Amino acid sequence: MALSVLAVGAGGSEITIVVRSYRATTEWRVREYEEIPVALRRRLCALVLAAVLTPALFASPASAVTGDVGDVVSVSDLPRDLWIPGAATAELLTYVTTDTFGKKALSTGTVFVPPGTAPAGGWPVISWAHGTSGLDDSCAPSKVGPADPARDFPYLANWLKQGYAIVASDYAGLGTPGLQAYLDGRSTAHNVVDMVKAGRNHDASLSRSWVTVGQSQGAGAAIYTARYATEFGGPDLDYRGAVGTGTPAYIEKLVSIGGPNTPPIALPAGLTAYVSYILAALRYAHPELGVDSILTPTGKKFAALAETTCVFDFEEQIEGTKVGDFFSAPVTSLPDFTSVLDDYMAMPESGFDKPFFMGHGLLDTDVPFPTTGAYVARLTANGQPVTFEAYDADHSGTFVRSQADTVPFVKSLFG
């Protein structure tokens, strides 16, 4: 969790230290330095020194970012153990994009190029949108690899084998200043599109023609991107279509029913973790909502843990916890909660200009099938260019099995 010192001063016989985090401002008043808990002394000393010596560094990180979206700020080699199997090259980029506040920000991402000579026009590009990994910087795929490497690496290696270059954003705030705005569709779409621009700015062998592919959280990012890719990409890119499996559609409707003892039972750990990540991200992206005011100590505990704990460890810690125990009042008692949440994470239902594929598992407990099924029905009723397949599989099983359908689908987009 990021902290910044607001003030250090003395008044009368007291020393006052004021520290701000994403969540709140905390003030310590002590008569002697020794009264500060030992575990906090070193950290506070470092924070005070940094605040005094480098105040500009702790100003709004986004305000310091300049350049155009897609500009590459830095490049480094990716550690070998994080390479997608079969890649000829793998590099880590830091690039300019747009964050949840609509401001320029930094994101990190990776570029993987297949072996061989690029075809005329360059390697067709897949902008990979990763699934839930966590909110802490230590959870960024470019730092530790995918959350489920045994599942994701073979999947991505298969795309490389088909002759696609892969660019993969970590998303703004995950490994860069700020907090990842989990499930914020619009900012994540910017991150996904701008990663293509950054990849091409760095490596001339990448084509301007591209698609986006994502799973789970990344499927939401991919399908949201599908709606705005042509607009966000502009004339320099040639967007062709999208693939999303396990898409978290209409999740805002489930979150909006939250309240004391609602739901009254423990949900699958994955769903409970996702709710915690959403609450943590909303506190960061929309502090005006005052989310903490309707959270119980249990809710505050897990929203705080969500900021610092990667997904599988978090699921273990939250197993058996009831989401209904998070709330002291209905979430809808917060002024404008529903409209803010809809604007933040509701999936678009119209305006798609290129074909896109959605796949979902009938046995999925991470993202329940009925919510995504209802979303697909709405898309179909609205005449959107969606192809949908249901699989007799769970969340991960659908991801793996879907390639039998998605590989030919994506190939047809470049035909």
From TrEMBL:
It comes from the Bacteria. GO terms for biological process: lipid catabolic process. GO terms for molecular function: triacylglycerol lipase activity. This is Lipase. It comes from Rhodococcoides trifolii. PANTHER family: LIPASE 5 (PTHR34853:SF1), PTHR34853. Pfam families: LIP.
